[in-house]
Amino acid sequence: MSASPCATPIKLSLWDKVAAPHDDSVEGLEIGIGTCTLELSGIYWNLIYSRTDDATALQTSLVTRSKQFVGCQTGFIAFSGNFKGLSQGIIN
Questions:
Q1: How far apart are CA 32 and CA 1, in angstroms?
Q2: How far is residue 91's CA from residue 16's CA, in Å, rounded to a whole number?
Q3: Consecutive sets of 10 residues in the chain, 92 residues long: mean pLDDT of each?
């Protein structure tokens, strides 16, 4: 994964597109309740739901979902397409 050159270093998300800043690429830290970020490199922590298309990260949430993922993914339910790393969840 290569984050876009205009990736934000920090993103705070209430739910999906309700975020500050409203950016689809994060290179650093994302914290929220539930969100979808297309590209992420760093730490991705959401309370309820986190979804990404392409991530190299530590991803933690009740429900985690990723298409391309490298790193550590933890949640009650953890879904991944192409995955490299550690995935922990009651349902994988």
A1: 22
A2: 23
A3: 69 86 89 91 93 92 93 90 90 83
Q: Tell me the C-alpha distance between 71 and 63, whole Å.
A: 16
Please report how many Cα atoms fall inside a 13 Å half-sphere around the Cα of residue 73, on the Cβ side. 32
CB atoms within 10 A of CB 27: 22
Produce one character per residue of 78-91: b if its CB has 16 or more CB atoms within 10 Å, e if not: bbbeebeeebebee
Question: What gap in Å lies between CA 29 and CA 40, rounded to an integer?
Answer: 9
In the sheet with 8-15, reading across from the earlier edge strand, the strands are: 18-20, 8-15, 25-60, 63-74, 77-88
Q: Can you give the pTM of this predicted structure? A: 0.81
pLDDT given for residue 3 in this prediction: 47
Separation CA 44–CA 26 (nearest Å): 9
